[in-house]
Amino acid sequence: MGLQEIVTVLETYRGREKTLRTVQYGLLLLTPLAKENTRTALQTVSSQFGMARVILRLFDDLPMLQYSWSCIRSTKGKDTFLRCLELTNIAVDQLYFPLEHIAWARDMKVLKGNSASLWHASLLLWGLSLVLTIVRDRVDAMYKAELLTVIMQAANLLNALNWMPRRPWTKPF
């Protein structure tokens, strides 16, 4: 990856967020492998990258709300079960952001109170969102695989009909 590609990635919000996440998780992965005196530094730096991501998410509310509204309004070709999963996922995601914001504000002493329960709740919502996304993607993949199977079987049926003797759609040679 050249310098121009790196700059192109870092110029976008999503590119910066993915870079921060990769560095944060990479540092966490290296932490157990590091020497005793380096572990604390790696954990601290990883934590700072995580906090940078939290601060960036303070600006995600309106884009997320707009995305959620577009998903809610779009009902084209949606299976009922997939639609329920999607709407549940949207609700979970919309609950996650304010909880995280309030927890952060309490940590920064902008709001009074303990943030531990809010961080715990936001972590549970994040996990639930990930599970819902995985289930939705798996169900969607199964539906697509079923459709592909139906198309393949229909093509096989047409092929079998084509090889039958005395086909009404052909003339003898």
Automatic annotation (TrEMBL):
It is found in: Peroxisome membrane. Pfam families: PEX11. GO terms for biological process: peroxisome fission. The keyword Lipid metabolism does not apply. Keywords: Membrane, Peroxisome, Transmembrane, Transmembrane helix. GO terms for cellular component: peroxisomal membrane. The chain crosses the membrane at residues 116-135. The keyword Transmembrane helix applies. It comes from the Eukaryota. This is Peroxisomal membrane protein 11C-like. It comes from Homarus americanus (American lobster).
